[in-house]
Amino acid sequence: MANVDDITDDTFDSEVLQSGVPVLIDFWGPNCAPCKAIAPHVAALAEEHDGRLKVVKMNVHENMKTAMNYKVLAMPTFVVLKGGQEVARQRGASGGIQGLRKLVGAHL
């Protein structure tokens, strides 16, 4: 079963930039209702693409450095990185799991 790992500013480089597979980052906040609503879909996506996609969550309130570097202006924001480079982005939770599938699909 795939996990959605929590990452921090300190672990970002090793967990995301050095990943051998594409990474979906869920930039979220603890008081964000849309973030909570889409969380089960994020977990389901991780399960669907286990071994082909790494899925991580980053609390923007506790990790402002990385959120600022990636210009996260709203929550949730989803960023796909491949080979350490941003290849796709989605702001907001609309679209549910279908929206997330579309976001990552071309990069697997």
CATH class: Alpha Beta
Number of discrete helical segments? 4
Proportion of residues in β-strands: 25-35%
Oligomer: single chain
Give the structural class: alpha/beta
Mean pLDDT: 96
N- and C-termini, Cα separation = 19 Å
The largest sheet has its strands arranged as: 1-3-2-4-5
CATH-wise, what's the superfamily?
A: Glutaredoxin
Secondary structure: helix percent: 25-40%
Overall shape:
globular
The low-confidence parts are none
Number of strands: 5
Our count of domains comes out at 1
The main β sheet shows up as: 5 strands, mixed
CA radius of gyration is 12 Å
Task: Give the name of the CATH architecture.
Answer: 3-Layer(aba) Sandwich
Helix and strand arrangement:
Elements: E1 5-6, H1 12-17, E2 23-28, H2 33-48, E3 54-59, H3 64-69, E4 77-82, E5 85-91, H4 96-105
Parallel strand pairs: 1-3, 2-3
Antiparallel strand pairs: 2-4, 4-5
Short description:
This protein is of the alpha/beta class and 108 residues long. Helices cover 35% and strands 25% of the residues.
Structural overview:
This protein has 108 residues and is of the alpha/beta class. It is built from 4 helices and 5 strands; from the N terminus they run E-H-E-H-E-H-E-E-H. It has a single domain, classed as Glutaredoxin (3-Layer(aba) Sandwich). It has a 5-stranded mixed sheet, covered by helices on one side. The mean pLDDT is 96.
